Amino acid sequence: MRAIPDTPAYQRIADELRRQILDGELAPGEQLPSLAELAQRFQVSDRTAYEATRVLMREGLIHSRPGAPTLVRERPASIRMTRSWYRESPKGSPWHADMAAQGRTGTWSAHSERVPAPPAIAERLHINPGDRTMRTEYVFLADGEPTYLSTSWEPLALTHGTDIMLPEQGPHAGKGVADRMALIGHQPDMAVEDLVPRTLTSPEATSLGLRAGIPVIVIERTYWQGELPLETADIVIPPPYRPRYEIPIG
């Protein structure tokens, strides 16, 4: 293992063990070397070896119980989440469509409330901080198990008093953003997504049944009609779920 200058020893050990797990050299269900074995192998103290295993524990790559050996965590089945630029809004729910294509049942729970736009969201929606928005928090489930989270914001200046003001209530509940916005004369012509790595917060971890602090990908998505932002959302993707982009050529 090559040493990286100024990288703490426990981090270098965690990096090497992570590589072995991801490459399959340490298979799911296999016992991790003991702290004494790690300390001898890497010429560090038991405490340093322990800190390395704590990193992998927080990332959800290993698990242990008191009095039992530490094991490489079994890899849950990966669920593909198709992000397709040419079929972003099939009739009905995109989540239903994606899960049905994989032989699974996609459902969700949602809660909407009117909130003033935080500064970062106001910047994404081209409105003033404090302007009224409809915020909707979603938990998406596959076969009844929580998979990922999404929080969307829509400017009430666009939707107030319309049939789509509450995304999950009324005659158009459950439709995708593009279909809903088209109903009030705002047909999106572009969706922009920025992928942002960060760690899972405690409230998010509670909703997903996971451990806070594990790495996740956040998709910051905004729907546009020309220069007008129609909706923006933070989509939190934890492992083992992965966004897959399908991009047509020509």
From TrEMBL:
Domain of life where this protein originates: Bacteria
UniProt xrefs under InterPro entries: Bact_HTH_transcr_reg (IPR050679), Chorismate_lyase_/UTRA_dom_sf (IPR028978), Tscrpt_reg_HTH_GntR (IPR000524), UTRA (IPR011663), WH-like_DNA-bd_sf (IPR036388), WH_DNA-bd_sf (IPR036390)
> Which CDD domains has this protein been placed in?
WHTH_GntR (cd07377)
Per the record's keyword annotation, is Transcription included, yes or no?
Answer: yes
Q: Does the keyword Cell inner membrane apply?
A: no
Taken from the record, one Pfam family name reads: GntR
Q: List this protein's GO terms for biological process.
A: negative regulation of DNA-templated transcription
The record's listing under PANTHER family reads: GNTR-FAMILY TRANSCRIPTIONAL REGULATOR (PTHR44846:SF17), MANNOSYL-D-GLYCERATE TRANSPORT/METABOLISM SYSTEM REPRESSOR MNGR-RELATED (PTHR44846)
Its name, as the record gives it, is GntR family transcriptional regulator
